[in-house]
Design goal:
mainly alpha; 20 helices
């Protein structure tokens, strides 16, 4: 359980009084639970509306775990992190799921269709969060504030909220850019529900996200100064560093020097590595690991019911054999997700005796049968317990109160090092090596895992060891040209047990069929 700065603790109360958006298929049309004049009548109303923007990351809808802001998808499946994780991890060498739910085998086998319900869900969730951000921005212009007699310091504070709303929108556009390439594009300047959104090309969307983040950089609170779970300059710099590292994929032009510039801004902003890696993924991470966290999605297993998020990450990775109570969820354990053999093998010794980041359970390394949960080592990285072993509050003993890092310092160390090693300017090879070995020293507990020099291929393996199951892997494999090629395989890639290459066009996902039908401005991505 977190302190008062854990803003999602209040979200269920506040959601019902904030303008929300409902969906019919993929047609996002705002519907007012109250009129805008009521919701935005006071400065407090604007703060509540801002909470709505953050709450849409950690909740599926205003009605609890059985409600969803998205149409056509089970509420339990419609959480942002759950959908994003499935797209980023189940499609890779790091994870596979034993469930036969429609759409899951397609992700396991890298053979998704344009109708895949989970990819459609991710696309819809990102568009939904963009829509509510746009609504906030429409209602917080200087003209709107003046019409509501809001001025002075109160208006200045709301202008700062606007910067956060723009950041959250830019973040979701970065997700769409990475996953779907060429999505529909709409801002607060566009009329709602009157004209179908135009499609934006991936390279142009990159320029937009970049320009938005730079425009709000000085308007956001200083790094490490905002409330826990809210965006600040550190978050904006982190996202810029991330998109610059992948700029060649998005635009055809590498921008490693820029990745160095912005990762260095984060590194020099006063963050520090948490002393123990495992504590990053326990429920008091806002205390033990606070200095490493840059931006988190906050979850509350009592006041914010949601079968996605970290409840999903923990439950789907354990079964009764693993003693769910020891994970803080005595009535949990869904037995679905586990590793493919590639992930443990990247550790060499995957027992955890040398590298403490290796958190595996079980004895069978190989994935012979997709539908058998015990085929493949289980992951024990995430738990609903504190660093002292105390279980955190959980409604029904199956929902987690574990916050999830969207950005943390370790990623920035790895971005800096990879960008330097790939030839970016403005960095230091010596510092890159120091940052790399700082991560190794935390993992090993001493200098025995240190390396003497760096090369580009070291980073994709180190990212697997440091960031596994945190939603990075698909993007990393694409950047390294390993996601679709036959030069790097994993079990059941391409639907074949030994793994085979798949079409290069699968480096991005398709625009969902439902939106293609609803919006004639859209052109499908090549290969679909």
């Amino acid at each position: 359980m977190k302190n008062l700065h854990k803003i999602l603790t209040l979200s269920l109360i506040l959601l019902v009084s904030v303008v929300s958006c409902k969906k019919d298929d993929l047609n996002l049309t705002p519907v007012n639970d109250k009129t805008a004049a009521d919701v935005y009548a006071t400065p407090a109303g604007y703060k509540q509306a801002l909470v709505k923007l953050y709450a849409s990351f950690g909740l599926t809808g205003a009605g609890g775990s059985s409600a969803s802001d998205l149409g056509g998808l089970d509420a339990g499946f419609s959480d942002f992190l759950r959908l994003y994780w499935m797209a980023q991890e189940l499609t890779t060498d790091e994870a596979i799921c034993s469930w036969g739910d429609v759409g899951v085998p397609e992700l396991n086998n890298s053979l998704w269709s344009t109708d895949n319900v989970f990819l459609r869900g991710l696309y819809s969730r990102s568009m939904y969060q963009i829509t509510v951000s746009n609504e906030f921005l429409r209602e917080s212009t200087p003209e709107k504030l003046a019409s509501r007699n809001i001025s002075g310091a109160e208006a200045d504070q709301i202008n700062k909220y606007r910067a956060e709303a723009r950041f959250l929108r830019a973040y979701q556009y970065s997700i769409l850019m990475d996953a779907f390439g060429n999505p529909p594009f709409v801002t607060e300047a566009d009329a709602i529900g009157k004209v179908a959104p135009k499609q934006i090309k991936r390279a142009d969307l990159f320029k937009y996200v970049e320009s938005e983040l730079k425009a709000i950089e000085t308007e956001l609170p200083a790094a490490r100064s905002n409330e826990y779970g809210r965006a600040d300059q550190g978050a904006a710099w982190s996202l810029l560093a991330r998109i610059y590292l992948n700029a060649e994929v998005y635009t055809g032009t590498a921008q490693y020097s820029e990745a160095i510039t912005y990762s260095a801004k984060v590194i020099n902003a006063g963050y520090s590595l948490a002393p123990q890696y495992k504590n990053l993924f326990l429920t008091d991470n806002n205390v033990t690991s606070k200095n490493e966290m840059i931006l988190t999605i906050n979850y509350d297993g009592v006041k914010g019911e949601n079968f996605g998020g970290t409840s999903y990450l923990i439950n789907a990775a354990i079964n009764g054999e693993m003693n769910p109570a020891s994970f803080g969820l005595p009535n949990g354990g869904w037995g679905g997700n586990r590793s493919r053999s590639n992930l443990p093998l990247v550790f060499g010794d995957y027992s955890g005796a040398t590298d403490k980041r290796a958190m595996f359970f079980g004895t069978k390394l190989a994935t012979d049968e997709v539908g058998v949960f015990t085929d493949g080592l289980r992951i024990t990285k995430f738990k609903n317990v504190s660093s002292t072993g105390v279980a955190s509050p959980s409604n029904g003993g199956s929902l987690a109160s574990l916050d999830f890092p969207i950005f943390r310092l370790a990623e920035q160390y790895l971005i800096y090092g990879e960008a330097v090693t790939r030839g970016g300017n403005g960095g230091s090879a010596a510092l890159a090596l120091t940052y790399f070995n700082n991560l190794r020293q935390r993992a090993y507990g001493n200098a025995s895992g240190n390396v003497a020099s760096l090369n580009v291929n070291l980073f994709i393996d180190e990212r697997a060891r440091e960031l596994y199951w945190e939603g990075f892997r698909r993007t990393d494999l694409v950047r390294y040209k390993r996601f679709t090629s036959g030069s790097y395989l994993w079990p059941f890639k391409g639907g074949v047990k030994a793994g085979v290459a798949v079409a290069e066009t699968r480096n991005i996902f398709p625009i969902p069929t439902a939106d293609m039908i609803a919006n004639t401005n859209l052109v499908q991505n090549p290969g679909y």
